[in-house]
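Try it yourself: sequence plus arginine, in.
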Amino acid sequence: MTNGMWKGRFSKATADLVQQYGESISYDWRLYKHDVAGSIAHARAQVKAGILTQDEFEQIESGLRDIEKDIDAGNFDFSIELEDIHMNIESELTKRIGAVGGKLHTARSRNDQVATDTRLYCREEIDTITTQVKELQVALLKKAEQYADAVIPGYTHLQRGQPVTVGHHLLAYVEMFARDIDRLTDARKRVNVSPLGSGALAGSTINLDRQQIADELGFDRVTTNSMDAISDRDYIMELLFDFALIGTHLSRISEDLILWCSSEFGFATLSDAHTTGSSLMPQKKNPDVCEITRGKSGRLYGNLVSLLTAAKGLPLTYNRDLQEDKEPLFDSIDTIKIALAVNAEMIADMTVNIEECKAAASDPMLLATDLADYLVKNGVPFRSAHELVGQAVAVAVESKTPLDQIDLTKISEHYGADASAVFSLETALKARTNPGAPSIENVKAEVARWKNTI
Ligand code: ARG
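Structure, out:
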C-alpha cells in the first residue's frame, strides 16, 4: 500500500523494501507525546488564524489526547506504511474524527514538525540528565566528605607523584561533572527554540502566530530563518558531544576504580551488588560496571561521529539523510542515563580502604619534591635542588633504603638537621594551602562549597 498522506501523484505502490528501508516509526514513536503537544499548539493557532472553528479544534484536541492515552497504554498499532510517528498519529486522528483531522496539517510540514518534536524531546531529556549528573556529583561528594583526610598517592603517568587525599581526588570528578552541567545548560538555550511555522522550508502563505505556538510549548523564542530551522541539527550534535564527554569522564572514573579495586592497589572495595563473579574462578570479584562504562564511552563517541558525518555536505534544506539523527540521539540518551544511574549507585556504596591508601602514600619518595622545596627555602635554586634530591633518590634506589633514611648531609651542606621533618605526610599536606591545593582544610572547604552549590 502507498502512504495515503502523499499518494496523489503516484500510480504504483511503494515497494516493501522501500518501506522497510525508510521507516522511522520503529524508533521515533518515542516522540509521540511531543508530537501530540506540538499538534495541539499548532491547531490552537489555526483557530486564531480562522482555519479551524473552536469546535473543530476541540475535536482535534480530544482526538489527539485519546491517541496519546492509547499509546501510553500500549494500545496503538504503529504501521510502517505510515513511515513515522507524525503520519501514524495524523492518519489515526482522521480515522477517528473524520475529515476535520485533515485540516491539522495546514501550514505545517513534517520538516518543521520533526524538528519541533525532537527539540521538545531533547529539552526534557536535558533536564532529566542534568538531574542525574547532579545525583552522581552528590554521591561523589559524600565520599569526598567521608574520606576528606584519607591520604593517597596522586599519580602522573600512573607512577606515584605526590600525596593528596581521596577527598581531593574525588572532587576532581565533581569539577568535571559541573562543567558537563554547564555545557548541558548552555546547549538547552539553543535547543529551546521553536521551528514550527517554518513549513517544509519556506514558511507558509497561511501565517499562524508562531509566538503563540512557541509560548504554549514553553520555547524561549522562535527560529528566525525557515531554511536553517528545518535543516538545523547542530543542537543534536552538540548534545551528542556533551554526552560523549560525560562518557569520557565516567570512563576515567571507571579506570581509576578498576585500578583501586585491584589487589595491586587495594585502595577501594565495591559492594557485592555492583560487582560480578567468575563462572570459573571462585575468588573473583570483578568491577564489570566500570568496564561496561568504559566500553560504552565508545558508542557515545560513535554516535557523535555518525551524525557529524551524516550531516556533512548536505545541501540546504531538508534531506532524508537527516532522519539518521534519531537513532544515535536515542542511543546516546539511553546509554548515558543508565550509565549515570548505575555509577551514582555504585559510588554511593563504595568503601575506601584507608589503611591501604595510607600505606601507599607513606612511600617517602612521594615527598622528594617537598625535599627540593626545603632546599629552595634554604636558598638553593630549584634546578640545583632538583639535582641534589635526584642524587639522594639514586642512593636510596641503589642501596634499597627508604629516602627518609638516607644521610642527606653527606650529599649537600644545604641540608640541616631539620631536613628529616620534610618526611611527614601531615606537614606535606598542611603546607598545600593555596586555592585548589589538597590541604585537608582546603578539601573540607571545597566539600562545603560544593554542598552549597549542587
Ligand atoms: N521521519 C522523518 C525524519 O525523521 C520526518 C520528516 C520527513 N520529511 C520528509 N520530507 N520526508 O526526518
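One thing you can check immediately is this: Residues 110-146 form the longest helix (37 residues).
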